[in-house]
């Protein structure tokens, strides 16, 4: 069965500092991987996705993630965070083949930015 | 291109009542899926519809049901509401290379 683990429930970083959010997945085949961001009371906004190909994926808002099959990881990074990055971040693994369309989410990591 | 539209945004219901939530996917998207988000359980998959057929269902009781219309709009229904059904219900439409696009959700409060 698919599963996703985000080991860090809450992370605090200073504005301008670098950021890495961890994500480990369990899936029997080549995974489709996603990172979403959610502001309070809002829906989920897609930051980036990995389907195949280059393992370093660029997303919106200056985020990137690297798919490492050997470590079953898909960590999200940003070189310099801004106060507006404060939100909750969700990693998800999905199956996009016919007949099996669903996402399995991690528990989320809440990001706080110190001024 | 318009995004995924969910209505209503907020809803307050009493225990024992039923509720219907609506989701209009992105034009041209034929797959719609529903998720429940609660502080305790996180984001959990409810069901997925494609061309008016339910293809996948999560581990929820039969009080949770859904359907999809020929124009791809989807509704989900929860009958005999319980306090634990209070949650943010998110709808996602799927099509093309972008994967899942989510709506802003419907916040359901059961009192």
Determine the number of helices of chain B (DSSP H or I, runs of at least 4 residues).
Answer: 0
Quickly count the helices of chain A: 0
Order of helices and strands of chain B: EEEEEEEEEEE
Number of strands of chain A: 12
Walk me through the structure:
The complex is a heterodimer of chains A (115) and B (111). Chain A is mainly β and 115 residues long. Helix content of chain A is 0%, strand content 56%. Chain A has strands at 3-5, 10-14, 19-21, 24-26, 32-38, 45-50, 56-58, 64-68, 73-78, 87-97, 100-105, 109-114. In chain A, the strands form three sheets. In chain A, strands 2, 5, 6, 10, 11 and 12 form a six-stranded mixed beta sheet that branches. The radius of gyration of chain A is 14 Å and the shape is globular. Chain B is globular. Chain B starts with a strand and ends with a strand. In chain B, a hairpin with a 5-residue loop joins strand 7 and strand 8. Chain B is 0% helix and 55% strand. Chain B contains no helices and eleven strands. Chain B is an all-beta fold and 111 residues long. The interface between A and B is medium-sized, with 25 and 27 residues.
Give short descriptive properties of this protein:
heterodimer; A: 115 residues; mainly beta; six-stranded mixed sheet; four-stranded antiparallel sheet; 12 strands; 56% strand; B: 111 residues; seven-stranded mixed sheet; 55% strand; globular
Which helices and strands occur, and which strands form pairs?
The complex is a heterodimer of chains A (115) and B (111).
Chain A: E1 3-5, E2 10-14, E3 19-21, E4 24-26, E5 32-38, E6 45-50, E7 56-58, E8 64-68, E9 73-78, E10 87-97, E11 100-105, E12 109-114
Parallel strand pairs in A: 2-12
Antiparallel strand pairs in A: 1-4, 3-9, 5-6, 5-10, 7-8, 8-9, 10-11, 10-12
Chain B: E1 5-7, E2 10-13, E3 19-24, E4 31-38, E5 42-50, E6 53-57, E7 64-68, E8 74-78, E9 87-94, E10 100-102, E11 106-110
Parallel strand pairs in B: 2-11
Antiparallel strand pairs in B: 1-3, 3-8, 4-5, 4-9, 5-6, 7-8, 9-10, 9-11
